[in-house]
Design goal:
Helix content of chain A: 25-40%
Helix content of chain B: 25-40%
Largest interface: A-B, 23 and 21 residues
Number of domains of chain B: 1
Number of helices of chain A: 13
Radius of gyration of chain B: 17 Å
CATH architecture of the largest domain in chain A: 3-Layer(aba) Sandwich
Oligomer: heterodimer
Shape of chain B: globular
Number of helices of chain B: 7
Number of strands of chain A: 13
Strand content of chain A: 15-25%
CATH superfamily of chain B: Spore Coat Polysaccharide Biosynthesis Protein SpsA, Chain A
CATH class of the largest domain in chain A: Alpha Beta
Structural class of chain A: alpha/beta
Shape of chain A: globular
Largest sheet of chain A: 6 strands, parallel
CATH topology of chain B: Spore Coat Polysaccharide Biosynthesis Protein SpsA, Chain A
CATH class of chain B: Alpha Beta
CATH architecture of chain B: Alpha-Beta Complex
Distance between the termini of chain B: 32 Å
Strand content of chain B: 25-35%
Chain lengths: ~375, ~260
């Protein structure tokens, strides 16, 4: 196992996803460094951008733990050995590399890694999840790391033989923004009252009309025909464009395509990072589980317009940001994954459970 | 030469039943635009209707003249391209929002589109249209929902309901009268091939109502028009490889180009 800890103290600049104009936080890695070893994170590169995005966040979470992290696409994977390989995710990478023998190359990589885990951010009751599960089994993965807001379960997962690790899609310590947003100036700058973006379905079109006619006609909506959301060259809005839209928007509103209840944690996180308020809309007949995070921001379709009209934007945003900062951090979830697979001793990887608490600790160091 | 302001132009031909809805939405839009500080008028150009449109228009003009409603009547049927050219010729203002008589505008957003066309100096700025079927209270689809791309040369998805910069349209020769029911498609292709910019804004501009005889229902002469348009603009099939100034332009005044 490669010794990852540096001699002496070193500062590692960590910027948020948004980066531009944001103050970089400098961490003393020695305060949290543990012997995680070498980590390789493989990304699709093309296909859906959010798997690339999650991979970068996970890399940012691992590095302060002392891991030596490499992040690359499949075609650039070195021939070295690794303690841990995170594939974000197997199925997406195979799809992105459809012209090459991607599966064979992942199998070769598997033989050079002590642990190989496939990453997942999809709803279990979708063909995307099932395809990833199948692909993960085929390449001999040790488990699935499922990032989201709620643990998931389905028969195929139970029968797969793969270890399931749930990781709460919390904020990185660096993402708990110190930017002051509780100002009227920021609210005024957000001239777009709502944004609704996603693949086109009849339900989404009908819901858009309700927002236009009953809440505010000046909303931003973009519902193109289904296609992968790549970082460039797709009809969709990629990560950078979505960030720009959300930075000028008050409410980020969406309807899930899925029939079941799935929180799409990435949208909540993007809303947080852009300073807007997420509103997940569920059908009136939906039966969400008894306990889920951000209940004030999950609204039934019949009540959305009235709630948006009645609530104060600044107050809603404050409440959302405070709740998110109190939730477990992404580092905590990943540390649990590492412990579960034997890459951390039980007492190691003491990233703070809550990113806001962690920030206070670092400020005192 | 062109006075700053907005003319909402409604070409109409035997749409007596739907015309009041279009005119109402246009007058409301003009009122909102004036409130925002821009001069505006509504011009209905009748292409020699034979139903009760003339009687209706006389009454509407008398009732709403002070709200900026103007009426022009062709002595004989010259088709919608000529009606649009009449508006281009006789409008009082620089920017024209063309509205078919069976559709309606979302007036609250027109000022946003005016800002976009001023910001971008585009020949055309269009937005998303919510599609409704006759008799249905709910929308069933979207149209004009996406940026101008070369696939327009294969199949049009941009409705005539759009805001144009009058001098640029006149400069390229105006609308053609020779493309029965496909005049807007031909105009977009013509503008794109002549270096003009056609910009999409992901905001609602109006409602597209599917009524008997509307283009979204399909036309008997579609195959003929497809062939003719391809012969004019894409004879060799290489159009997809030719760059235009107007590919994939998406814009919002608060965001810039997307």
């Amino acid at each position: 196992m490669v010794q990852a800890r540096q001699q002496g103290t070193w500062a590692h600049p960590i910027t948020t996803m948004l980066g531009k104009g944001e103050k970089a936080l400098h961490m003393d890695a020695s305060s949290n460094a543990v012997d995680v070893g070498t980590v390789l994170i493989v990304i699709p590169g093309t296909a859906n951008y959010y798997y690339n995005l999650y991979a970068r966040w996970i890399a940012d979470a691992f590095r302060p733990m002392g891991a030596k992290v490499e992040l690359c696409v499949l075609s650039q994977v070195p021939s070295a050995t690794y303690d841990l390989c995170l594939v974000s995710n197997v199925c997406e990478i195979e799809w992105a590399n459809h012209e090459d023998d991607a599966r064979a190359r992942i199998l070769q990589l598997r033989r050079r890694c002590k642990t190989l885990i496939s990453f997942n951010a999809d709803f279990v009751h979708t063909h995307w999840f099932l395809n990833n599960l199948s692909a993960a089994r085929a390449v001999g993965a040790d488990g699935i790391c499922d990032v989201g807001f709620l643990r998931q379960d389905c028969q195929e997962l139970r029968e797969s033989g793969l270890r399931y690790n749930f990781c709460f899609d919390g904020l990185l310590g660096s993402q708990v923004s110190q930017e002051r947003l509780d100002t009227r100036e920021d609210a005024i700058r957000r001239s777009i009252p709502w944004a609704h973006v996603g693949g086109r379905t009849l339900k989404r079109v009908e819901f858009t009309e309700r927002l236009v006619t009953d809440f505010s006609p000046a909303g931003f909506f973009y519902l193109p025909a289904p296609a992968p959301v790549t970082e460039k060259d797709s009809p969709h809005l990629n990560e950078e464009l979505m960030e720009r839209v959300l930075r000028c928007t008050r409410y980020y509103v969406w309807l899930s395509k899925h029939d079941g209840f799935f929180m799409e944690s990435l949208r909540f996180k993007m809303a947080y990072l852009a300073g807007c308020v997420p509103i997940k809309v569920v059908e009136d007949t939906a039966e969400p589980p008894g306990d889920f995070p951000f209940p004030a921001f999950v609204l039934r379709e019949s009540e959305v317009v009235e709630r948006l009209r009645d609530q104060d934007f600044l107050e809603a945003r404050r409440a959302f940001r405070e709740e998110y900062a109190r939730r477990p951090s992404l580092e905590a979830g990943l540390a649990s994954l590492l412990r579960d697979h034997g890459h951390l001793a039980p007492e190691e990887g003491a990233a703070s459970a809550s990113p806001s608490r962690g920030r206070a600790l670092r400020a005192c160091a | 030469m062109y006075q700053d302001g907005l003319t909402i132009a409604i070409p109409t031909w035997n749409h007596e039943v739907f015309l009041p809805r279009a005119v109402r939405s246009a007058l409301e839009a003009a009122r909102m635009v004036r409130t925002a500080g821009t001069q505006a008028e509504v011009m209905v150009v009748d292409d020699a209707s034979r139903d009760g449109t003339h009687s209706l228009l006389r009454q509407l003009e008398a009732r709403y003249y002070k709200d900026g409603l103007r009426v022009r009547i062709h002595p004989s049927n010259l088709r919608v391209g000529s009606a649009r050219n009449t508006a281009l010729r006789e409008a009082s203002y620089r920017y024209i929002l063309f509205l078919d008589a069976d559709n309606e505008i979302i007036g609250a957003n027109v000022s946003l589109f005016l800002q976009a066309i001023r910001d971008t100096s585009a020949a055309v700025v269009y937005g998303s249209l919510l599609v409704r079927k006759l008799g249905s209270p709910r929308v069933c689809d979207l149209t004009s929902h996406g940026s101008f791309q070369n696939r327009v040369f294969d199949d049009n998805y941009i409705d005539a309901l759009a805001l144009v910069d009058r001098p640029q349209i006149i400069d390229v020769g105006g609308a053609s009268s020779e493309w029965l029911n496909w005049e807007d498609w031909e105009l977009w292709a013509h503008l794109a091939c002549n270096g003009r910019r056609i910009v999409f804004m992901p905001v609602a501009l109006g409602y597209y109502h599917i009524v008997p005889g509307s283009k979204l229902q399909g036309m008997k002469n579609q195959q003929e028009m497809d062939g003719r348009l391809k012969r004019t603009f894409n004879q060799t099939g290489f159009r997809h490889y030719l760059r235009t100034r107007t590919n994939q332009l998406r814009y919002h005044p608060a965001l810039g180009y997307l």
